[in-house]
Structure formats: C-alpha cells, structure tokens
Amino acid sequence: MGVVDPACWTPYRGQPKVDGATDPAAHRAAATPGGTVPTSRTTCLVAPDKFKGSLDATGVAQALRAGLQDVRPELDVGCRPMADGGDGTLAVLTAAGFERIPVTVDGPTGCTVQTSYAARDTTAVVELANTCGLSRLPDNVPAPLDASSYGLGQVVAAAVRNGCRELVIGLGGSASTDGGAGLLQALGARLLDGDQREVRRGGRWLADVSSVDLDPARELLQGVSVTVAADVDNPLLGARGAAATYGPQKGADPAQVHHLEHALTRWATVVEQSTGTRLASSPSAGAAGGVGFAALALGASVRSGIELLLELTDFAPALATARLVITGEGQLDRQSLAGKAPVGVAAAARSAGVPVVAVAGQSTLDAAELAAAGFAGVYLLTSVEPDVHRCQSNAAELLTEIGRRIARDHLTG
C-alpha cells in the first residue's frame, strides 16, 4: 500500500481510494469544510505514538520533524509525542513537563524493579506497563498464573502518601491476569481463604478467596479521585473476558486460561458480595488482566486513555496554530480504531478543523476505514522500504524521508 491520495481521503469528499500519487493542490482545496487550508496556520504539529520495537514516540516525532524541515527549513514544527495510557505514557508526560518521581516496587513476579510515576501539582499518573507489565518480567519469561499487579498498588500508595489527590492509572501491557487483586493487596485490602489466611499473589490463587476486606484500601484513597485510562472495553469474564482474550498473549495455554477463568469467576463473586455491586460485566473490567475490575470496585471512573493524554499534555491549545497534524504508530489495524493514540489525535484535529495525516510502518486497514477515522492521507514505511525488518532497523531514516514527502505534498506553495 503506497501513499493515499489526500484529496480522496478528506472526510468532506466522496468514497476514498488508494492511489500511488498525491495531489497537493487537490488536498489544499479539500482539506477543510470551507475548501481551503487556512493560510494563518503555519505550524505543523507532529503527535505520533511509538513505533514499537523501533523508536519511542519522541524519536518518531524528531525524525519526522527533520524530514519536514529538510524541505521547509523555516517551518515551525511542534513535537507532541503521544501515548494512550500504555507503555510510553511516562515518557510522553515527562516531555510535557511532568516530574518523574522514582519508586522501588515489586515487579510482576516479585523481583524488585525501579520505576516511577509522573507528577504535576497534585496530579499523579501511574503507568502499569512500567511497573508490573510484560516488559518487567525477568528474562522475558511469562508467568501467566503467578504474575501480579501488586507493584502497581505500591506506586499508587506512594503517590497518595506524597500528597497526590488526582490519580490516573494507565492500563496496558500487563503481565498478569489477577483481577487486580495484587493492586488491592498493596493498598491494604485483605484477601482471605477459607482458613482465614492471606491469599498469595497471582491469578492462580484467586480460586481460594473466601472473603475480601476493601476498607483499608478505601481509607487510603479517601479524598483521592481515581481515573483509569483504558483503551479496551472487555468485561472481566467470558469469551471477551480477561483470561480468554488476553491470557494467551501473556503465555497462558488453554488449560491455564480455563483455570484463570474459574479463578476470576470466584474472585468476582466475592468482590461483588463485598461491594453489593455487579461489576464483572462492566466495560473495561477486563482491562489489564482485570485491574479495571479492581479499580471499579474502589470507585474509579474509566476514560479513554488517549483522551486523557490529550488533556494532560494540553494538546487542544497547540491545535489553534496548526496547519497540519501528523500522527501515527508502528501498525495501523483494527485495534487502532478501538481508541489508540493516532485515532484519538485524528478526532481532536478533525474537531478543530485541522487536516491530519498518518504515518505507520504497515497498515491492515482499508481506505474506507482510514477515511472514517479522519485521516486525510497515510504514509507507510513499507512504501519506501518493502522489507519489514529493514523498516524496523532503519525507522528513523525512513521516517525522515516520509517527513520530506509530507512536506512536499502538504506544506509547499
């Protein structure tokens, strides 16, 4: 798939199509409802997510800026690296002016890890992936039955004890399927088996839970607003639940998925008896192996991760001077449409009347899907270098070339 004709991709035109050529004049005439790109907008706003396995979001933005300014040296390019609450969120917020506060916690299997949370005034943002996510597994060995979200709770507790009163928990990239039990245990909740002994960490042991006391955790969070940033709406249980949908991605075989489903069912029953509220079927209860469920049990609200990041990084004011927005991620696919960063950026740009183009390594979306998401065009690394492995190893160089092409197609004349 090559470059998509921007004139055909504008949401104000007819059916989109894929074409190897680009018509800048047609784009300028079709990029806004009024038919022209406002000449007062001189800034190009670059707001990509990471290209996983190649470059972080900052690296992607810098490479694109280099290409843009090769063609237009005078161009004012604003770099706004973006994330959706998963891995990379802390880096994005640090670039936006948040302070990193270091914390030492238990990783997914109990080994000590050095992590941090991002703080600004009384707001704290915790990234699960950086605390007890897949990337924190020792030697990258999966532990589908024994991995825990305990370290996430330790970071949350540290932020609250340091005076934070608005807490955002970014879900994504979790190594565990423990229903968020570890999070609750680290916050002081007591999980007991039939012999009134503390239940061990990990999804394996949830089948033994007989009672749960959430009061210590609620006491710790008194006066603290908790928001969960999630980009999936899966329930805790069933065919779309945490175990069935995401367990295999964390190394669980069919027998282990069955065990986890049974354990989570028991866990949900005990927690719902304690809270008096049915939560297992709630949207996002299955996020991050069920951490969403535990957060809901503590009264947390759930929001789109990208929407929250756009607010926290003050993205809307930057759009006021933008002539064009460039976003992207390593691969555009159906998951992208479910609330990933590029689609969120495109929605914000579209609302502001600013055309937006996407950059990706590859795309499995067709022209109609990309147009419906609000992209005026899409540029793929594979259109420059067909070899996927070379795309990954030479991503910066290829993105710089893509930046040049975007500048010629959209920002000259």
Short description:
With 413 residues, the chain is an alpha/beta fold. Helix content is 37%, strand content 18%. Belongs to the glycerate kinase type-1 family.
> What can be said about the biggest beta sheet?
6 strands, mixed
Residue windows where pLDDT falls under 50 for at least 5 positions: 1-41
CATH architecture field of the largest domain:
Alpha-Beta Complex
Mean pLDDT: 89
Shape field: elongated
Number of strands: 13
Residues in helix, %: 25-40%
Number of domains: 2
Distance between the termini: 27 Å
What topology, given as strand order, has the largest sheet?
3-4-5-6-9-10
CATH-assigned fold name of the largest domain: Glycerate kinase, domain 2
Radius of gyration over all CA atoms, rounded: 22 Å
**Total of helices:** 18
Question: CATH superfamily of the largest domain, please?
Answer: Glycerate kinase, domain 2
